[in-house]
Design a protein that fits this description.
single chain, alpha/beta
Length: about 400
């Protein structure tokens, strides 16, 4: 779901007093501060059915009616319990885009409600901040120049030329969809600060410093209580929290962490705006390969690949391509030495573990040496088994040119 689509969905939902949920296996969604709150549908069918069962009406927008990933004994595949008349499937007609459908929906809601949607204020106050815009532009410029640049420093003095100026225009208009910039914008606005001010003006985002107040902010995601620092032996939950704590603005997170990464959705809610991608089916090995496509398509954005050790072995050769193409990808291997998702599925079905099932689901005989494997493919690789080690490794990886693999050895 693109940012402009999500903003309009948020405006419609707010007008109707509705909640927004996304598929568990969504393709891509814009997330982080400034975006409307979205709840992810639970993975397991009973959990999903419970979460969706509290609603009188469910409307699916450019999505299929949710069903369980696998067939479960004595469990319906269809997770919705509402009568079919209360399940509305909204799909674009042939030749229409999702945005066209959303505009039609918004117009109908405005007609019924008798008032205009609060889209303009959401665009400026919620969709993204001036800081988000500036950080995004800075990342694009630094990606083109292949060097850091101060926000008030002339891009031309740091290596900008006519070719990269044209590329800058293309990337700005692609990222900030709907913002019309002249082709020579880099000649007009020669610093990141100037570019950010120009783009913010077109997005109707204020660049003025916020007024200070003695009162604590309320009802904002930034006012959520601060959690205790992440320390100690590494777990999946701690790994997710450290990634969310350190990930840069406008990054792309390719997420195939599965069971080990369930904490990431909530942990990353307060991050600066970013793109979150997941696999959309039941196959595994997705993240290694897709991260390559993302890095090539968006070389100005940092790519973070989160993948389980079981999944990673399906497309491990992708590491060689990452090294060959010198792609800025940080691959985090959630290493629990097992196919944990299969253990969970068996437990839900009431299957008791035995020697055979353990042989089929454990990856510890022999143990995979991910550091040696990554280095063999030409990827800088390190191992971390504590939160402090992982934080150091992850920060170093984000500041390293080219691909880096982190073997996050989990205690659970």
């Amino acid at each position: 779901c693109r940012a402009d689509e999500l903003r309009l969905v948020g405006a419609v939902a707010r007008a109707l007093g509705a909640d927004i949920m996304c598929e568990n296996a969504f393709a891509s969604i814009e997330r982080g501060r400034g975006n409307p709150h979205v709840t992810r549908t639970p993975y397991f069918p009973k959990d999903a059915s419970s979460a969706l069962g509290k609603y009188t009406v469910v409307a699916t927008l450019d999505a299929k009616t949710p069903v369980s990933m696998f067939g479960y004994k004595n469990t319906p595949s269809r997770v919705l319990t509402q009568h079919e008349d209360d399940v509305w499937e909204l799909d674009p007609l042939p030749g229409m885009s999702t945005m066209d459908l959303l505009r039609m929906l918004a117009e109908e809601v405005e007609r019924v409600m008798g008032s205009a949607l609060e889209l303009a204020s959401e665009t400026s106050a919620e969709a993204q901040s001036a800081v988000d815009v500036k950080n995004t532009i800075s990342a694009i410029v630094e990606g083109l120049l292949d060097k850091p640049i101060a926000h008030d420093e002339s891009m031309w003095e740091r290596g900008m030329n006519s070719r990269t100026a044209v590329q800058l225009h293309q990337r700005l208009t692609t990222h900030f969809e709907g913002v019309h910039l002249i082709s020579s914008v880099a000649f007009q606005a020669t610093t990141v600060d100037a570019l950010a001010e120009l783009v913010c003006k077109k997005l109707n985002i204020s660049t003025a410093a916020p007024e200070t107040s003695s009162e604590s902010p309320t009802s904002t995601i930034d006012s959520l209580p601060t959690r205790e620092p992440v320390q100690g032996t590494l777990t999946g939950e701690k790994t997710c929290r450290v990634i969310a704590e350190c990930q840069p603005a406008s990054c792309v997170v390719v997420d195939e962490s599965l069971t080990s990464g369930t904490a990431y959705w909530d942990a990353s809610a307060q991050c600066e705006s970013f793109t979150h991608m997941t696999l959309t089916g039941g196959s595994i090995g997705f993240a290694n390969a897709v991260s390559i496509g993302v890095a090539i398509a968006a070389p100005h954005r940092r790519v973070i690949s989160m993948i389980g050790d079981g999944s990673a072995q399906y497309t491990v050769q992708a590491l060689w391509t990452q090294a060959r193409e010198k792609l800025d990808i940080v691959t985090v291997i959630f290493n629990n030495a097992s196919y944990q998702i299969l253990k969970l599925e068996m437990a839900i079905q009431g299957v008791r573990p035995n020697d055979t099932s353990r042989t089929l689901t454990e990856l510890s005989n022999p143990t995979v040496d991910w550091v040696s494997l990554g280095r063999a493919y030409g990827v800088k690789s390190v191992r971390a088994s504590t939160a402090d080690e992982f934080r150091t490794a992850f920060k170093d990886a984000l500041n390293t040119s080219g691909p880096v693999l982190i073997d996050a050895v989990l205690s659970m």
